[in-house]
Specification:
Blueprint: H1 3-10, H2 14-22, E1 35-36, E2 44-55, H3 72-76, E3 84-88, H4 100-108, E4 113-116, H5 123-129, E5 133-135, E6 147-152, E7 156-158, E8 161-163, E9 168-172, E10 175-179, H6 184-206, H7 219-230
Length: 231
């Protein structure tokens, strides 16, 4: 994806993106569960780097597994600069999948953010690492208490959405959405126009205009909007 396309997406809210995708029949694009660990108005965009956990298997999910090639540690070393790591933790809230040391390493590798329907641990350290995180909460136990890590860069489910490696993720204070790769240009173009239209509607409401006929616009409102765009 071009830098210009990413710049356009950074100006489009996740709420608008869900509306644009609805036009294409896609309803499951907003991930249920991930919320910003620190809500500061930031909007981030990047390609998805997927990670997959399955339910705990006590013979496999052990502290010793952290040193194996197939591990969260190994996955982090494969993350490309600028990606958004998306972890399928099946919504399990009793085991933190990543902590401060792992998020610090992700920052060193210039990963854009972590998104998960699970939870993190070591909250103070994670926040101090400065890695933007969207998650479902915080828990002290380590991941192996409730999950088994099995791999990366394969299709996953996160927060009720199908995520494929390379899909584009957009995160803001409303949560995280996934844009299928083939629809990124459509969402950027249509979303930018939608944001422009809604900014005009807001200005009309501020002037005292009534909503019927304005939102959604009737033909008269469309004509006024078209004239405003030409100015």
């Amino acid at each position: 994806m071009s830098a210009a396309l990413y710049d356009t997406l950074r100006a489009i809210t996740t709420a608008t993106i869900t509306t644009m995708l609805l036009k294409k029949g896609i309803r499951r694009c907003w991930m249920h569960g991930p919320k910003p660990l620190v809500a500061d108005g930031t909007r981030l965009v990047g390609p998805a780097f997927t990670l997959r956990f399955v339910p705990v298997r006590e013979d496999l999910a052990t502290p010793e597994s952290w040193a194996k090639p197939i591990s969260t540690r190994g996955a982090i070393e494969e993350m490309p600069e600028g990606c958004i790591a998306v972890a399928d933790a099946m919504g399990i809230a009793s085991a933190g999948i990543f902590g401060d040391i792992l998020t610090m390493r992700m920052m060193k590798r210039n990963v854009t953010a972590l998104v998960t329907d699970g939870v993190v641990r070591d909250k103070a350290g994670v926040v101090a690492s400065k890695l933007p995180v969207w998650c479902a909460g915080v828990a002290a136990p380590a991941s192996v208490n409730g999950l088994t890590f099995v791999g990366w860069q394969e299709p996953i489910g996160c927060g009720g959405c199908a995520i494929f490696p390379g899909d584009v993720i957009v995160c803001d204070d409303d949560g995280a959405v996934v844009i299928p790769q083939d629809l990124v240009a459509f969402v950027a173009e249509e979303g930018a126009e939608h944001e422009r239209m809604e900014s005009w509607i807001v200005s009309e409401v501020e002037r005292g205009a009534k909503l019927p006929g304005l939102y959604p616009m009737n033909e008269a409102a469309k004509a006024r909007y078209a004239a405003w765009k030409k100015k």
